[in-house]
């Protein structure tokens, strides 16, 4: 078995372990063991990947493997990783590990909850290792399906409405995506669904690219909260259980940005150059609209949700700039946003003196969100805006300046939340009975803080890993 196949295989084995578990202790043992193995495997993969690159490996994808799955349509179970997918796998493993502890005190249908949680993880990990279009789409669907039940059954608030809205919107995007993938396959000659082979051939006619590019970009963009298809995200984010919310905003929405770059832009570069201005405008609206919407919310969960719309819009905005610096910043933003969003544990509410540990975690997440130097948000956003401003024409520089205003708007709502919730006067007697973080929540928070600070203080190894892969793809696109 290829080592990469262990990433979706471990959650499958965790599901089997959960199935035969007879009590909560066994369930927790399975989840901690499996998520720890995934995290250890992801860390090992980072070092193994860097070692191969330093040894001179120049292939676009490393650790590749391909097995025929359905010969009539040339569908293969094909896997491989580059610098982009390696950091996405590391992010996913961190979120699954910390999400396990965030769900430690789940008391309703615990076994079923964690089984759906593991199935969601199967889809996420499988998506990031796939280099076959159909296999990638299959894992994409596997990642989306569990969200309906995880929110509809174990969520809160208007959970049924949020789950149904999320499912319908994302299934609509999937329909466009499936049509676009089949268009790419037949447009490239109908001989392979391997992303690398299609990109190397570069034979999709421009007339067809103009049709399939919008479909694929919108199909993935729906999951990336592209305006005006973002409306499912705030409701879904706000209604999801804590660990699911961490996976939703921290990892699942990153599938959208990853797919837009890996499939839409990499395989159809001519149409991307020609039509990018339309989506640049839409993503700039997402960035500013999300930030403004967060400013006017009074519910902490919706503040976090609209903040995610803004930051994920910034990812798509950077990808559309189509230069190495901006795209490197986009991947770093996906990593940074995944970590700092997961750090916004939703049980946090009240005052600093009542729940000091959770309050400090929230403050650090907020400071990373607004781009404080020394934390992950600053590195990612400055790389994006630097890359976007490299375009010398008026249009690109104007939309970049507009997008930059989100930094100020973000500072407004983050500082307002911190001031009112953490340092204001406690007028609600219910808040006085709140308890600070338990040991399991502290494990999750500490892991995430270390990752956010580590990326902010020592970003070069991450950016160099990403840049090496991005530069090769961009060189091919620009030719």
Q: How would you explain this protein's 3D organization?
A:
It contains 18 helices and 2 strands. By secondary structure, it is mainly alpha-helical. It has one domain (3-478). It has a two-stranded antiparallel ribbon with strand order 1-2. The radius of gyration is 21 Å and the shape is globular.
Please describe the topology of this protein:
Layout: H1 6-20, H2 24-54, E1 62-70, E2 75-81, H3 83-102, H4 110-129, H5 133-154, H6 159-187, H7 195-201, H8 206-223, H9 232-239, H10 242-267, H11 269-296, H12 300-321, H13 324-343, H14 356-369, H15 376-388, H16 394-422, H17 439-457, H18 460-478
Antiparallel strand pairs: 1-2
Task: Record keyword descriptors for this entry.
479 residues
Read across the widest sheet, the strand sequence of neighbours is 1-2
Calculate the terminal CA-CA distance, rounded to whole Å. Answer: 36 Å
Unreliable stretches covering 5 or more consecutive residues: 346-350
How many structural domains can be distinguished in the coordinates?
1
Structural class: mainly alpha
The H/E string reads: HHEEHHHHHHHHHHHHHHHH
Strand elements, count = 2
Most strands sheet: 2 strands, antiparallel
User: What overall form do the CA principal axes indicate?
Assistant: globular
How many alpha or pi helices? 18
Radius of gyration computed on alpha carbons: 21 Å
Strand content: under 5%
Overall pLDDT level: 82
Q: Share of helix among residues?
A: over 70%
């Amino acid at each position: 078995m290829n080592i990469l196949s262990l990433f979706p295989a471990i959650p499958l084995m965790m599901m089997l372990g959960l199935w035969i578990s007879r009590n909560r202790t066994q369930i927790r043992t399975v989840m901690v063991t499996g998520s720890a193995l995934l995290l250890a495997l992801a860390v090992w993969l980072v070092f193994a990947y860097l070692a191969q690159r330093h040894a001179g490996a120049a292939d676009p994808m490393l650790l590749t493997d391909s097995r025929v799955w359905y010969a009539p349509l040339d569908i293969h179970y094909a896997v491989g990783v580059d610098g982009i997918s390696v950091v996405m796998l590391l992010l996913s493993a961190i979120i699954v590990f910390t999400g396990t502890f965030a769900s430690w005190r789940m008391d309703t249908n615990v076994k079923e909850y964690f089984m759906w949680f593991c199935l969601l993880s199967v889809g996420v990990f499988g998506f990031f290792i796939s280099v076959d279009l159909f296999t990638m789409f299959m894992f994409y669907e596997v990642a989306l399906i569990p969200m309906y039940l995880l929110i509809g059954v174990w969520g809160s608030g208007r959970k049924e409405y949020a789950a149904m809205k999320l499912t319908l919107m994302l299934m609509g995007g999937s329909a466009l995506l499936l049509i676009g993938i089949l268009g790419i396959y037949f447009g490239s000659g109908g001989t392979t669904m391997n992303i690398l082979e299609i990109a190397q051939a570069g034979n999709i006619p421009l007339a067809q690219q103009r049709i399939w590019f919008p479909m694929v970009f919108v199909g993935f963009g729906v999951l990336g909260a592209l305006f005006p298809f973002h409306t499912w995200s705030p409701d879904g984010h706000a209604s999801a259980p804590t660990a699911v919310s961490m996976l939703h905003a921290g990892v699942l929405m990153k599938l959208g940005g990853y797919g837009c770059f890996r499939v839409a832009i990499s395989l159809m570069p001519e149409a991307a150059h020609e039509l990018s201005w339309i989506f640049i405008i839409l993503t700039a609206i997402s960035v500013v609209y999300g930030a403004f919407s967060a400013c006017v919310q009074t519910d902490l969960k919706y503040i976090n949700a609209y903040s995610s719309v803004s930051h994920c819009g910034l990812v798509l905005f950077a990808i559309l700039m189509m230069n190495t610096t901006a795209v490197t910043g986009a991947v770093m933003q996906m990593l940074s946003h995944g970590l700092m969003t997961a750090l916004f544990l939703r049980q946090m509410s009240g005052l600093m003196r009542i729940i000091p540990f959770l309050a400090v975690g929230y403050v650090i997440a907020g400071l990373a969100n607004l781009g404080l130097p020394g934390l992950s948000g600053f590195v990612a956003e400055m790389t994006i805006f630097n890359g976007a401003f490299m375009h010398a024409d008026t249009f690109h520089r104007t939309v970049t300046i507009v997008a930059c205003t989100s930094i100020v708007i973000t500072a407004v709502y983050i500082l307002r939340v911190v001031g009112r919730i953490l340092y204001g006067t406690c007028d609600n007697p219910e808040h006085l009975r709140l308890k600070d973080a338990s040991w399991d929540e502290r494990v999750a928070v500490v892991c995430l803080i270390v990752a956010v600070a580590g990326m902010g203080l020592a970003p070069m190894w991450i950016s160099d890993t990403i840049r090496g892969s991005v530069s090769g793809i961009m060189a091919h696109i620009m030719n």
